[in-house]
Design a protein that fits this description.
40% strand, two-stranded antiparallel sheet, 2 helices, twelve-stranded mixed sheet, 16% helix, Immunoglobulin-like, Phosphatidylinositol-glycan biosynthesis class X protein, 224 residues
């Protein structure tokens, strides 16, 4: 559980997103800087809620492994994700990412989440497809406090406030200023004019592998 002790009834925030690494397998780094503008908000948990478009996804099995080792904490909505689906058959995914305090900044929080690009339809011209990732919403959950409705907008989030309780509590949305309104992910795609060549190579590879398997069966006997 990450607890933020603030003395504020109103806050705003600055949000920064970065995509680390290259290719299909990336790390989404989210940074939140809070600025206190009031008093008496008590202890709160900070999270970022972002909507992933169909062209990008979070592997639920990878996420479960990371959470088991306390390397990250996040919720997927819906929690079932088809990791094999291409971009044109996938749907949006909502992610609630719990933030950790940034040791280099007393009022800053950060969290990283592994994300993966989906396969897209072949393109006529470009060798890259663009996936647009909007700036996330900053949420605060103060389970033991009643925040001023004049400063905080209640958010409909069915999620616990921290790791110490499984009971959902009231989350609130904070006004924030994104460093960038959107983040662009470039995903490699194939070209349509290469389709025939790809089909021929795939067929030859299939025939070769099948022949090697049959040869091994004939030489060493039937496979059990």
């Amino acid at each position: 559980c990450v607890i933020l002790d603030v003395q504020a009834a109103c806050q705003d925030a600055t949000v920064t997103q970065e995509l680390l690494k290259e290719g299909f397998h990336r790390d989404l780094l989210v940074k939140v800087e809070l600025r206190i503008m009031g008093d008496d908000a008590g202890g709160c948990t900070v999270a970022a809620r972002t909507r992933l478009p169909p062209g990008i996804y979070v592997d639920p099995y990878e996420l479960a492994s990371l959470q088991q080792h306390n390397l990250t904490k996040a919720m997927l909505i819906p929690d079932g994700t088809d990791v094999e689906a291409p971009e044109y058959l996938a749907t949006d995914t909502l992610v609630l990412l719990y933030m950790e305090p940034d040791p280099r900044c007393s009022h800053c929080f950060r969290a990283a989440l592994p994300v993966h690009g989906r396969y897209h339809r072949p393109s006529e011209e470009s060798e890259e497809a663009l996936v647009v990732l909007k700036s996330p919403e900053v949420l605060v959950c103060c389970c033991d406090n009643h925040l001023s409705t004049e400063c905080w907008k209640p958010a409909e989030v069915e999620a616990p406030c921290s790791g110490k309780t499984v009971r959902p509590c009231q989350w609130y949305s904070i006004m924030h200023k994104p460093a960038y309104e959107e983040l662009i992910l470039q995903v490699p795609v194939g070209l349509r004019q290469h389709s025939s060549l790809v089909c021929v190579i795939t067929l030859l590879a299939t025939v070769l592998c099948s022949s090697l398997i049959l040869a091994a069966v004939c030489k060493y006997g039937h496979l059990s």
